[in-house]
Design goal:
Aminopeptidase, two-stranded antiparallel ribbon, 244 residues, alpha+beta, globular
Length: 244
């Protein structure tokens, strides 16, 4: 993916150890609200995407992409630590795990998410990717705070049975079962939905029927998949316009 600029932001791939360390520092700041490096051992297998402010070169957002030739390699993914993904092992097309997406807590710019999707679109097109997947996180581990959001996921966005992720993590919230009778308040649900997950859902993404309780990261996260062929044509056009 070649570097590009949009709306005062520059997007590029990390080119050096210093670039990767910068991404790890931003992730630690965003996830743990303190200085340090967030290094989980997967960075060496990933392409790191950096979003920088053109005016001063500050790193304001980042995420990483890990490529797989097909589902037979999915056991190597970050997500496979938390979800039993054997159903996806039969997926034949190229896949990418998108992870560690974060924005500098001091950078209040909605364009960061937009240019990130533009970068993902370029990356997907250049690598002929057929499925995006990863873990989408809710801040905190209080499932009650997200009851309407989880009820909406249960009603409208569960994974197709052929790709159904099974429970693997020791601590999970089985929201599809626990909230089977709850009808979500749409407005509250959308307010509580993480922006990245909201974007996936608008494009036809789907999720696991349970959330993993990750106390180390202080999050609840759901496995999220998006088949590129399922993205509505109008939204594909908008993404490609943004990526141009």
């Amino acid at each position: 993916m070649k570097a590009f600029e949009k709306g005062g932001l520059r997007v590029r791939l990390a080119e050096s150890a210093a670039d990767v360390a910068g991404a790890q520092a931003l992730r630690h700041k965003a996830f743990f609200n303190r200085d340090g490096l967030d290094d989980d051992g997967f960075d060496g297998y990933c392409d790191q995407v950096l979003v920088e402010r053109v005016a001063d070169g500050a790193l304001v957002g980042c995420f990483r992409m890990m490529r797989f030739d097909g589902g037979h390699e999915i056991c190597r993914s970050y997500s496979a630590q938390f979800y039993e993904l054997s159903a996806l092992e039969s997926y034949a097309g190229p896949m990418v795990e998108m992870g560690r997406f974060c924005v500098d807590p001091e950078a209040f710019d909605a364009d960061i998410l937009r240019v990130s999707w533009a970068a993902m679109t370029r990356y997907v097109d250049e690598n002929n990717v057929e499925m995006l997947f990863g873990c989408s996180s809710f801040k905190g581990t209080d499932a009650d705070a997200y009851a309407d959001a989880f009820a909406m996921l249960k009603d409208r966005h569960l994974a197709p049975r052929r790709w159904w992720p099974q429970v693997k993590a020791p601590s999970v919230f089985r929201f599809a079962q626990a909230l089977r009778r709850r009808r979500p308040d749409t407005r509250r649900a959308m307010r509580a939905m993480p922006p990245l997950l909201r974007s996936y859902l608008l494009m036809g993404g789907w999720v696991s029927d349970h959330a993993v309780v990750d106390r180390q990261m202080n999050t609840l996260h759901v496995f999220t998949g998006l088949e590129v062929s399922a993205i509505p044509p109008a939204r594909k056009r908008l993404l490609r316009v943004a990526a141009a």
